Amino acid sequence: MTVKVFSAEYLDSLVEEASQSPRARQHRNIHERYDDPCQRFLNAIGTDSYIRPHRHSLDPKAETLIAVRGQFALITFDDAGAILNIVRFGTETDATVPVGADLPPGNWHTIIALVAGSVLLELKAGPFNPNAAKEPAPWAPEEGTSDGKEYLQRLRELI
Question: Which bin fits 106, alpha (ψ -120 to 50), beta or left (φ > 0)?
Answer without folding.
Answer: left
